[in-house]
Amino acid sequence: MKQIxxxxxxRTMMLTLVATMLGFWAAAxxxxxxGGASINVSTTKxxxxxSEGWYASPWVWVVGAAVFVLLLVALLNNRGGxxxxx
Length: 86
Prior knowledge:
Elements: H1 2-27, H2 58-85
């Protein structure tokens, strides 16, 4: 029974890793060399941070990801605990 649970956790971790890598790969396609297209983007930054949304801050994404991972672990751990008791 422990081997099956270990296999399920390893499979979940591998699928998460593959999904993350695919996300990075898709995001990296924006500035590829093979397309031959040149993209020039000019940005201006205002001095007040009130014009930017709350989602522009990196710490918001880090905290949100940490909460999501904790919830995911709690849900998966609780589900596995119910199976072992039956």
